[in-house]
Design goal:
Layout lengths: L1 H27 L1 E6 L5 H15 L2 E6 L6 H10 L6 E4 L1 H8 L3 E2 L14 E3 L2 E6 L3 E3 L1 E4 H7 L9 H13 L1 H4 L3 E4 L7 H8 L1 H5 L8 H7 L5 H16 L3 H6 L2 H9 L3 E4 L6 H6 L6 E4 L11 E4 L3 E5 L5 H13 L1 H10 L16 H11 L4 E2 L10 H15 L4 H13 L3
Parallel strand pairs: 1-2, 1-3, 9-10, 12-14
Antiparallel strand pairs: 3-13, 4-13, 5-6, 6-13, 7-12, 8-10, 8-11
Helix pairs in contact: 8-18, 11-19, 15-16, 18-19
């Protein structure tokens, strides 16, 4: 009997030790996410805290973006002892930079719930952060007062006429400028990536990579560049010079949010900023008229992807966190109601109430209402690092339109 009691006590101690060890291991485990969307840092951090309470797994969110160069800072993280478990890439450019560090996903529940995962050679490497879109965001009240119907803004000629009319009414409408546009050194992602994407895909069927393929082979479409330069010139002409040349993200979005500009060159990712600052006027997207012809689509896609660091010691925990985000109602609430995003997953039933994101869902539902996101499939650093400064020079007047076209052409041809 004594032996039996002793055995039971020993087994109890063993199980207690194993249980404590597992709990201790769980509590000491930490998943670190390094991401590039400053506008959702607080919301993602709050969701991470919720997840920690639910599971006991600590999740830490680190953010670099906006005015701070994410790509450079991420490389610094990897060169230190602070390597993240999850980080963000944006298309093939990011994949080509980080391919040796990436762990593919397999057999994850979320993979059956989206068509926007990032895939290379049949392997899934990227969890889509959201569906995002941009067009020319407009303030409907201002356009109504100016007698401009946003549904008519489908060509460069239509925009030119609308801009001229609104500009002539700036004092009456209380405007500083027609367009909130930024082209300074902190905003090269607006010009060298998002705006330049108009050259890559505007007017083309969704998924058409013809212009992109030429660019990646060092070939420029001079006629298309010329048409595109007219659009850039038009935006710069009707922008406030201070915001155009030196404005940061807050300055640009703030000009639109305070109703000092009728339009803004941004996407639905500005919804959280607008909500945080009490902006509630009616707004929507009109197409960018990046090249000649008629446009009835805006740029829609998955702009970025969460990827796994293949050297992480917390791979399973990192996968579990992302799966929770995509499959749990708390994750859906975070994406839609807190981060004000449009989720990329078919199981999400919550509809966004943020104005621009809600308008994106309308464009998604339109036949042929989408142009492709291709700016992230250029060589790494080409858009922001190589092209961005050219836009700044053009905005400053250091180069004219002919030289702007020539420099874009020269940089494209240098890819070869």
């Amino acid at each position: 009997m004594k032996k039996l009691v002793s055995l039971i006590m020993i087994l109890a101690l063993i199980f207690a030790f194993v249980g404590c060890s597992k709990d201790d291991a769980k509590e000491s485990q930490e998943v670190v996410i390094y991401q590039n969307k400053v506008e959702i840092h607080d919301q993602l951090s709050a969701f991470a805290e919720l997840y920690t309470k639910e599971t006991g797994i600590k999740v830490t969110v680190k953010t670099s973006g906006g005015d701070s160069p994410y790509a450079e800072n991420l490389k610094a993280e990897f060169q230190s002892d602070r390597q993240p478990d999850i980080f963000v890439i944006e298309g093939m450019g990011g994949y080509n930079t980080w391919s040796t560090k990436l762990e593919p996903f397999a057999d994850q529940e979320w993979m059956d719930l989206t068509a926007l995962e990032f895939v290379v050679d049949g392997k899934t490497y990227g969890f889509p952060v959201a569906v995002e879109a941009w067009g020319m965001a407009y303030n409907k009240e201002i356009l109504d007062k100016a007698g401009v119907d946003p549904a008519t803004l489908t060509s460069q000629d239509a925009y030119r006429a609308a801009f001229e009319k609104i500009d002539s009414m700036k004092e009456e409408l209380g405007l500083t400028s027609v367009v909130a546009m930024a082209a300074g050194p902190d905003m090269t992602w607006v010009t060298g990536l998002h705006n330049f994407n108009g050259y890559l895909s505007a007017g083309l069927p969704y998924g058409d990579t013809t212009v992109l393929d030429k660019l990646n082979n060092g070939e420029a479409d001079l006629q298309r560049l010329t048409e595109y330069a007219d659009w850039v010139e038009l935006l710069f002409q009707y922008a406030d010079e201070a915001v155009l040349l030196t404005g940061n993200y807050d300055a640009q979005v703030g000009q639109f949010g305070t109703q000092k500009a009728a339009f803004i060159h941004q996407g639905n990712w500005i919804d959280p900023w607008l909500a945080d600052n009490g902006v509630d006027f009616e707004m929507g997207f009109a197409p960018h008229a990046s090249v000649y012809g008629k446009h009835n689509a805006i740029f829609i896609g998955a702009p970025s992807y969460y990827v796994l660091n293949n050297e992480s010691e917390n791979l399973d925990a990192a996968k579990d966190f992302l799966n929770f985000m995509a499959t749990n109602e708390a994750g859906h609430n975070y994406m839609v109601n807190e981060a004000k995003m449009v989720p990329a997953f078919t199981n999400v039933t919550i509809k966004p109430d943020a104005p621009l994101s809600a308008n994106v869902t309308e464009w998604v539902a339109k036949p042929n209402g989408s142009y492709t996101w291709l700016q992230n499939d250029m060589p790494d650093g080409f858009g922001m690092g190589t092209l961005g400064p050219i836009y700044e020079s053009f905005a400053k007047g250091d180069i004219d339109k002919a030289e702007f076209i020539n420099q874009l052409k020269t940089k494209i041809e240098a890819i070869k």
